[in-house]
């Protein structure tokens, strides 16, 4: 999401290191279920959801029993439920502000 401070921090991190990025505004083009599935396999579904956001509170997910498939559909429909930013570099994935991880990617270690 363009307005997210975490997303701006990630963009700044890569720009400062002259790493070319392809930014996708999730409010304009949400992630596909398959792409979300890649992140779920890596981190688990709970790690992808930002329980501190207004979108999470408005969805009432803390009170609802939702299947994993139902939760994936909710995330696909409402990307503001995600911890931002989800970052993919080839087969490497991160969620949230993962600067330590990004430094490993950039340095090649």
Report on this structure.
The protein has 109 residues and is mainly alpha-helical. It has a single domain, classed as Glutaredoxin (3-Layer(aba) Sandwich). It has 6 helices and 2 strands; from the N terminus they run H-H-H-H-H-E-E-H. It has helices at residues 5-16, 33-43, 45-48, 54-59, 68-77, 99-107, and strands at residues 86-89, 92-95. A two-stranded antiparallel sheet has the order 1-2. The longest helix is centred in the N-terminal third of the chain and has 12 residues, at 5-16. It is globular. The model has no long low-confidence stretch (mean pLDDT 90).
Write the layout of secondary structure elements.
Blueprint: H1 5-16, H2 33-43, H3 45-48, H4 54-59, H5 68-77, E1 86-89, E2 92-95, H6 99-107
Antiparallel strand pairs: 1-2
Protein name: Regulatory protein Spx
Organism: Calidithermus terrae
Family: Belongs to the ArsC family.
Question: Summary?
Answer:
The protein has helices at residues 5-16, 33-43, 45-48, 54-59, 68-77, 99-107; strands spanning 86-89, 92-95. It is mostly helical. Strands 1-2 form a two-stranded antiparallel ribbon.
Main features:
single chain; 109 residues; mainly alpha; Glutaredoxin; two-stranded antiparallel sheet; 6 helices; 48% helix; globular
